[in-house]
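Figure 3 (text version): C-alpha cells given as input.
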C-alpha cells in the first residue's frame, strides 16, 4: 500500500502482479534453476522485480496470496544491517537537531537513507536491463545526465549523503556495462513471450504521480505541530493568527508611511548620497566578469575595487532594464520597501528571544523607526537600508541554525503548555550566509561582528531547552546523552563564513600592503555628501548627524527631546538589566557588541574618506550605529525575559499584568521619537534637514550626452563645477562621466579614497590623473593649442558646466564659448553643454599614423587626423591603411588588456603614456579588445561557488521542523 493509505481490504482479492519481493517468495525449484536464479549483480534490492519479469517472459505466472502472512523485518532497507551483515558503522548513524544520538539505549533507529545507494544502483540496473534495444543504445548517456541532475537536486535539498549515493550509483551503472549486457542476454535467452505482455501489470505514470503527491501530503501533515492538548492546540493557532494579523497590518502601514513621506520618489529617486545605477547595457556584465571598473579613465588590476553592494544593486538595475525599468525606479522600490522589510525581519529575529507579542512589536518598532534608519533613508545612504534588513535576518537565522528554538507558551486544559519549534538548521545556516554576505557588502567593517557572532555560536552556543527540561531526571546519572548547550557545527560555520571572509579579503590585503588606506574599512557606498559631525550624545541615541545643527521647516516644541527619547530610554533599560544579576550572559555579550558599534560609528564620523568640492567628507556612521542599536535591543530582550511576559493571561498575577501594561505603553515611544522626522518628511521633504533626495529627472543629463555615451564610440562628458574655496580665488572640480552622473562605480570607497588622497597630496597622481589635470587646465585656458586633441585623447566629446549665477561660473562659460574646438549645443537643467566641433575625432579607440622617434613609434604630437572606431561588443572593423599606424585606447594602461587583429594578438607599444598604444598592420580586418584580470576572476569564481552553496542551503526544499512540548 502507498504511504498514508488505509488497509480496507482493497487488495485482498488481487492475483496476478508484475513482481513480488524475494522475502517470503515461493518459487518452483525447477523453474528457479531453469532461469538461473536471481541476478548476481543486484544484491538484496530489485532482485525480486528482475526475477519476476524473467518468470513472466518465460511463460510462468507471478501471483500473490492475500491470506498469506509473512513477517519481514526489512533490516537491509532500514539500514539496520551493514554491508557485511553486521551493525552499520557510526558514520551511518544520525543525530537530531538537539544533539541527541538517534541510537538510543544501544538500539539503532531505522533509516532508509542508509540503503539508498544500493537501492538506487539496483533501480538503474533494472532500467538498463528492461529497456528496449533502441533505448538501451542511448541509455548510458541519459543515466549520466539524469545522475548529474539528481546529484545537484540532492545538494539543493540538503542531502549530501544521498548526493554521494546518486553519484556512486550512476558511475557504477554506466562504467559497469558488462553487468547489464549479461543480464539482457540472459533475459533474451530465457524469454518465450513478448515483453508487451508485461504492460498490463505496470503502473501508469499518472498512478506514480498520484502516489508521490500523496506521500508529500502525508509528510507535510507530519511536520505540523502535534499538540495532544486540544485547548492548547486551539490557543496555539489562535496566537499565530493574531501574530500574522499584527505583522502584516503594521507592514502595510509602514508601506503607506514610506509612500507618503517620499512621495516625490514614486517615478524615480536620486540625489543626496544615493549613487545612480549604470544604464542597462551588455558591457556591464563584461566588466563585472573581467574586473575592469568603467569609471573616469578606467581602473583595473585591483581585486575588489568596485563596491560589492554597488555591483549588486547595479546588477539588479541591469535585469530591470531588460523590461524597460529605469535604475532610478529600482532605487525608489528599495526605498519604499526598506521600512516594511526592516519591520518584518526584526519581528522574525526577535522570535528566538521572546514569544511575547507586545515585546516583539516593541523591539521591531524600535529597530524600524530608529533615527539612524530614517535619516539614512532621507539622505540616500543605501548601505544602511540594506543593513536594516540583513542584520536582523542574520542574527535570527544564526541563532536558529545553532539550535535555538522558537517557543510559545499557551494555556492548556489544565496547565500552561510550552511549544518549541526547532527549524531546519541547514536552511537557517544558508540564510545566515546570504544575509551576512549582504551585511558585509553594505559595509566591510561588518565582517568583524559577523565573525565574532559565528565564533560565539560555535564556542558558547545556546542553552538546550530539552536539557533544562530533563535535568532533574538525569541529575543522579553521571552521563547524559542530551547536551547542555547547542552549538553551531563546524561545517555550518564554514558555510556562513566563507562568503563574508572572501568578500573582506581584498580590503584586508590592501590595507596590509598600504596602511594609509585603513579608512576603507569605515567607508561605504555613497556619493560624497557633507553633513554635520555628531557628538557623543547624538551617537549614543543613534543619530548619525548633529541634531542641534539640523534645520527643520516644522520644528515641533521639544522635538529634540522626542528625538533622543527612544534610544535614551533603551540605553537606560540595558544598563539596568546588565547591572541586575541574572543567569544568562546574553545581555552582557550584546552590550559589548553595542559598545563596539558606537565606537565604530564615532571613528567613521571623524575619519575623512572622500572630498566634495573644497570639503573633506567623513565616512557615514550609520553601519556602526546599526550594530549599536541591534546590540541594545538584543541585550534588552535578554534582560526583560526575566519578567515572565509570556505567562498566559489565565494564570498571570498582578506583577505579570503590570509588566505587560508597561511594555504595551512603551510601544508609543518609538513612534513619538520618529515624529519629528516623519512630520517634516510628510509636510516639506524638500526643506527638511533630514532629507536630501529628490525626484529623478531625465533632464539631469542632456539627451545629446546620453546618446553619445551609449553610442558605439562610448563618448564621455567632462563636468566642471566652480566654487569658492579658502585661500584660493576659485576651486574647479572636474569629473568624467561615462554614465548618469555619479554611478555606483564612482561612489565606491576605493575610488573616493583615491580622489581624496590625490586632492590632499597624500598620494602621487598616476599618469592618467596627471593627463586629466593637464587637460582640465587647458580647458580653463580657453582656446589653447591642441585642445581638441587633448580632449579627444581622453574620449571627451562633451563639457558640462552646471547652472550658477556666480561670477566664476559666468567667466568659465564665456571662456568655453570662445574656445575654437568647442561649440555650445544646449542649456538644460543639468547646465550648459559644449561638444567638440569635430566630433568624429573622439572615440574609445582611435587609429592614427605613428610618429617615429629613435626607432620607436608614438602617438603624433602635431595635428592629428585620427580615425574613430565604432566599438560594438569589443569589436570594430578597420579599413586598410598605411603601415606603422597606431591604435590608441582611451583607457588607463593595464597589462590585462588583450588586443587582437584578425584573431592574432598584438603586443602594446612601450611609450610610457597613460594609455596603451598598439601597432596595426596595413591590411583591413577586425580589431577585438578584451580585458581579463585573472586574480579578480579567480576570486570571483571562489566567491560565487561559496554563494551558490549558501543559496542551495537556504532554499526551503525538504523543509523539516521539529516540534516539542
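Below: residues designed for each position.
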Amino acid at each position: 500500500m502507498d504511504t498514508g493509505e488505509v488497509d480496507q481490504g482493497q487488495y485482498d482479492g488481487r492475483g496476478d502482479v508484475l513482481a513480488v519481493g524475494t522475502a517470503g517468495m515461493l518459487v518452483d525449484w525447477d523453474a528457479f534453476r531453469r532461469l538461473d536464479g536471481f541476478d548476481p549483480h543486484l544484491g538484496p534490492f530489485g532482485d525480486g522485480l528482475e526475477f519476476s519479469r524473467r518468470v513472466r517472459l518465460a511463460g510462468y505466472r507471478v501471483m500473490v496470496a492475500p491470506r498469506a502472512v509473512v513477517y519481514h523485518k526489512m533490516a537491509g532497507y532500514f539500514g539496520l544491517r551493514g554491508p557485511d551483515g553486521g551493525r552499520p558503522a557510526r558514520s551511518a548513524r544520525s543525530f537530531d537537531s538537539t544533539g541527541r544520538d538517534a541510537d538510543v539505549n544501544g538500539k539503532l533507529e531505522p533509516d532508509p537513507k542508509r540503503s539508498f545507494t544500493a537501492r538506487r544502483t539496483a533501480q538503474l540496473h533494472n532500467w538498463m536491463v528492461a529497456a528496449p534495444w533502441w533505448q538501451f543504445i542511448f541509455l548510458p548517456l541519459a543515466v549520466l545526465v539524469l545522475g548529474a541532475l539528481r546529484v545537484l537536486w540532492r545538494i539543493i535539498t540538503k542531502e549530501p549523503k544521498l548526493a554521494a549515493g546518486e553519484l556512486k550509483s550512476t558511475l557504477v551503472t554506466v562504467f559497469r556495462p558488462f553487468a547489464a549486457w549479461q543480464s539482457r542476454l540472459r533475459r533474451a535467452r530465457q524469454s518465450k513471450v513478448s515483453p508487451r505482455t508485461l504492460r498490463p501489470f505496470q503502473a501508469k505514470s499518472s498512478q506514480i504521480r498520484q502516489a508521490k503527491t500523496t506521500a508529500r501530503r502525508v509528510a507535510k501533515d507530519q511536520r505540523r505541530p502535534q499538540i495532544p492538548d486540544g485547548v492548547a492546540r486551539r490557543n496555539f493557532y489562535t496566537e499565530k493568527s493574531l501574530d500574522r494579523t499584527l505583522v502584516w497590518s503594521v507592514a502595510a502601514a509602514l508601506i503607506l508611511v514610506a509612500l507618503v513621506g517620499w512621495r516625490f520618489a514614486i517615478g524615480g529617486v536620486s540625489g543626496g548620497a544615493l549613487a545612480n545605477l549604470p544604464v542597462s547595457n551588455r558591457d556591464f556584465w563584461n566588466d563585472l566578469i573581467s574586473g575592469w571598473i568603467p569609471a573616469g579613465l578606467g581602473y583595473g588590476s585591483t581585486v575588489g575595487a568596485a563596491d560589492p553592494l554597488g555591483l549588486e544593486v547595479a546588477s539588479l538595475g541591469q535585469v530591470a532594464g531588460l523590461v524597460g525599468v529605469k535604475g532610478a525606479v529600482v532605487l525608489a522600490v528599495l526605498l519604499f520597501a526598506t521600512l516594511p522589510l526592516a519591520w518584518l525581519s526584526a519581528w522574525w529575529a526577535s522570535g528566538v528571544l521572546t514569544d511575547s507579542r507586545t515585546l516583539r512589536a516593541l523591539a521591531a518598532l524600535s529597530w524600524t523607526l530608529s533615527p539612524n534608519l530614517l535619516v539614512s533613508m532621507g539622505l540616500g545612504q543605501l548601505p544602511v537600508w540594506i543593513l536594516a534588513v540583513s542584520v536582523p535576518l542574520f542574527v535570527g537565522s544564526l541563532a536558529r541554525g545553532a539550535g535555538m528554538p522558537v517557543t510559545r507558551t499557551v494555556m492548556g486544559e489544565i496547565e500552561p503548555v510550552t511549544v518549541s519549534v526547532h527549524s531546519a538548521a541547514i536552511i537557517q545556516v544558508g540564510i545566515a550566509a546570504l544575509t551576512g554576505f549582504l551585511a558585509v557588502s553594505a559595509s566591510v567593517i561588518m565582517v568583524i561582528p559577523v565573525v565574532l557572532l559565528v565564533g560565539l555560536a560555535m564556542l558558547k552556543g545556546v542553552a538546550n531547552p530539552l536539557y533544562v527540561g530533563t535535568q532533574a531526571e538525569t541529575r543522579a546519572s553521571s552521563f547524559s546523552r542530551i547536551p547542555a548547550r547547542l552549538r553551531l557545527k563546524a561545517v555550518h560555520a564554514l558555510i556562513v563564513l566563507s562568503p563574508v571572509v572572501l568578500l573582506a579579503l581584498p580590503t584586508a590585503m590592501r590595507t596590509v600592503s598600504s596602511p594609509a588606506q585603513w579608512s576603507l574599512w569605515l567607508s561605504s557606498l555613497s556619493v560624497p555628501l557633507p553633513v554635520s559631525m555628531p557628538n557623543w550624545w547624538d551617537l549614543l541615541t543613534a543619530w548619525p548627524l548633529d541634531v542641534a545643527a539640523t534645520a527643520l521647516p516644522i520644528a515641533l516644541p521639544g522635538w529634540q527631546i522626542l528625538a533622543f527619547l527612544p534610544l535614551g530610554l533603551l540605553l537606560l533599560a540595558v544598563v539596568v538589566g546588565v547591572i541586575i544579576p541574572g543567569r544568562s550572559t546574553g545581555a552582557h555579550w550584546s552590550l559589548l557588541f553595542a559598545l563596539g558599534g558606537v565606537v565604530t560609528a564615532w571613528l567613521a564620523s571623524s575619519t575623512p574618506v572622500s572630498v566634495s568640492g573644497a570639503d573633506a567628507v567623513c565616512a557615514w556612521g550609520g553601519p556602526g550605529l546599526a550594530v549599536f542599536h541591534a546590540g541594545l535591543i538584543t541585550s534588552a530582550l535578554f534582560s526583560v525575559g526575566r519578567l515572565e511576559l509570556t505567562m498566559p493571561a489565565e494564570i498571570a498575577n498582578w506583577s505579570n499584568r503590570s509588566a505587560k501594561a508597561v511594555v504595551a505603553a512603551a510601544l508609543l515611544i518609538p513612534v513619538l521619537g520618529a515624529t519629528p522626522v516623519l512630520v517634516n518628511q510628510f509636510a516639506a521633504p524638500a526643506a527638511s534637514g533630514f532629507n536630501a533626495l529628490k525626484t529623478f529627472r531625465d533632464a539631469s543629463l542632456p539627451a545629446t550626452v546620453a546618446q553619445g555615451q551609449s553610442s558605439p564610440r562610448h563618448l564621455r562628458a567632462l563636468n566642471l563645477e566652480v566654487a569658492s574655496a579658502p585661500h584660493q580665488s576659485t576651486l574647479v572640480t572636474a569629473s568624467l562621466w561615462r554614465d548618469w552622473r555619479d554611478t555606483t562605480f564612482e561612489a565606491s570607497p576605493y575610488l573616493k579614497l583615491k580622489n581624496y588622497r590625490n586632492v590632499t597630496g597624500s598620494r602621487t597622481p598616476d599618469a592618467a590623473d596627471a593627463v586629466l589635470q593637464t587637460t582640465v587646465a587647458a580647458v580653463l585656458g580657453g582656446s589653447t593649442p591642441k585642445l581638441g586633441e587633448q580632449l579627444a585623447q581622453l574620449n571627451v566629446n562633451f563639457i558640462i558646466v552646471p547652472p550658477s549665477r556666480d561670477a566664476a561660473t559666468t567667466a568659465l562659460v564665456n571662456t568655453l564659448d570662445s574656445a575654437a574646438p568647442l561649440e555650445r549645443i544646449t542649456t538644460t537643467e543639468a547646465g550648459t553643454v559644449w561638444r567638440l566641433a569635430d566630433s568624429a575625432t573622439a572615440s574609445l579607440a582611435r587609429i592614427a599614423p605613428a610618429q617615429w622617434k629613435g626607432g620607436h613609434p608614438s602617438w603624433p604630437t602635431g595635428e592629428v587626423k585620427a580615425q574613430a572606431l565604432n566599438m560594438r561588443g569589443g569589436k570594430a572593423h578597420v579599413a586598410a591603411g598605411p603601415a606603422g599606424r597606431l591604435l590608441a585606447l582611451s583607457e588607463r594602461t593595464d597589462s590585462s588588456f588583450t588586443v587582437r587583429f584578425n584573431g592574432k594578438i598584438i603586443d602594446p607599444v612601450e611609450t610610457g603614456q597613460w594609455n596603451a598604444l598598439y601597432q596595426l598592420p596595413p591590411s583591413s580586418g577586425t580589431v577585438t579588445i578584451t580585458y581579463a584580470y585573472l586574480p579578480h576572476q579567480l576570486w570571483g569564481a571562489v566567491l560565487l561557488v561559496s554563494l551558490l552553496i549558501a543559496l542551495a542551503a537556504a532554499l526551503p526544499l525538504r523543509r523539516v521542523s521539529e516540534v516539542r512540548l
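The mean pLDDT is 86.
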